[in-house]
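Lab notebook, bench 4. We co-purified these components, and the gel suggests they stay together. Before we commit to crystallization screens, I want a quick structural picture of the whole thing.
Request: model the full complex, all chains together.
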Amino acid sequence: MKKENSRECLNWRNSSPLFSSLSEKEVEFLTEGYIQVHFKKGETIRKQGTILDHVMYIGSGLAKQYIEEPGLNDIILTIIIPGKMVCSAGFFVNGLQYSTVAALTDTEISFFKSDHLKDLLHQNKDFFNVFMGEFTQTVLNHYQRLSLINRKQVPGRMADSLLYLSKEIYNCDEFSLDLNRLDLANLCGMSKDSVDKVLRDFQEEKLIQIKKNIFKILDEKALRNISKFG
Amino acid sequence: MKKENSRECLNWRNSSPLFSSLSEKEVEFLTEGYIQVHFKKGETIRKQGTILDHVMYIGSGLAKQYIEEPGLNDIILTIIIPGKMVCSAGFFVNGLQYSTVAALTDTEISFFKSDHLKDLLHQNKDFFNVFMGEFTQTVLNHYQRLSLINRKQVPGRMADSLLYLSKEIYNCDEFSLDLNRLDLANLCGMSKDSVDKVLRDFQEEKLIQIKKNIFKILDEKALRNISKFG
DNA sequence: CAAAAATAATGATTAATATCAATATTTTTT
DNA sequence: AAAAAATATTGATATTAATCATTATTTTTG
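Here is the predicted assembly.
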């Protein structure tokens, strides 16, 4: 059983094409006032509605980024994996966090000052392009997720989420899921009970296997079919 | 009966704080290769999947911006009104259109070259800030719409859409709706029949009045309540 | 380690919404 | 102006998914 669960990327400078476009001096500037914090599983890293003056970088662990709305369920926009910059859309308007980020496992987070990052965007055109590319891609991914959640039905959405977790988060057909049922419900945009129901169905049809919290994809092709037509 | 339907904003230079941060020379540069096109009601202005090399500005008329997905219903992200720059998220990655824009009424559209705009973003910090602010705000609005569509139920979503149309699009309690039932369904993320059903209910409860295609908001407070709790 | 709390599993019930079908109306075209 | 096409209205039915209730299991905490 392979588990890519503990991928680490504490060395942020080498982690992403983002930083390779920066000069020594610029890196130094970015690192000024940079802090690194350890969060325990379950802790809130950044709360929706608070002031956005830092940009986050995930060194190790997994986190969820979700939108809250009083009286409604949370909706998980994305699972954040090591090596990624997390920069809300609010960054450019010096606004408030539009989403909350919480640790799914113990995580190591670095914080950079938004102002410094913004200055670098103006100074360095290459950096600007790479940064905006990543930023935009994130936005497009969120659109994709949100718009499909609305239009597919439960099995299709669950198939999507399982493939997402397997392919993009854990990089493996078999993984120990760090999300509980409620998280999974909020990732799929359905109720907790529907999660249970559809997971049971998938197991009966031999599409997946679940033992404790170890998920195993048995029939990827069938899942892709359900994703497409269900 | 007041109808703010035909607001015009052909003079793009004075229309938005966006342009006031540009110098004479910069405006000239932006205007190079700028073209203006008239579209008839129903025509596709920009198709999802095509190359994004121009940014649009709506001079007059109304348009819808929506995401397509084979086999699924369209989902309308936003109704575009005169005086707004339309710049997909793909702009920064020099990518493809992630959404389609089509005319709901006859419209006058100006196209600016993305490359020129991008150059100005690098040159002019004020322009950058204003532009990014608008861009970001749009993204956040889309998030808001998409995430609420998923979590509210039919009456709540319809109440949201009616308030959106009244307050943000037509600026009036009474308006001649330029969307047909299918558009409305795609704006609310529900089926066409559900649109009819809930509109009938709203009329019975004296929340709105519909005559031909003239919509009149009778009880805004009740609608806001439904939006909140329904 | 035991008790308590949280989470998960399962089936039954209810509520919400989409689909279908049949008719009426409006708009467009000839 | 008449015919055709598109859009809208309405009610009935079927499907889907949420809620509820109960029991089992797992995890956390003292």
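Chain A touches chain B at residues 67, 69, 71-73, 75, 89-93, 95, 98, 122, 125, 128-129, 132-133, 135-137, 139-140, 142-143, 146-152, 189, 228-229 (CB under 8 Å). Worth comparing against the SEC data before the next meeting. The CA atoms of residues 39 and 107 of chain A lie 5 Å apart.
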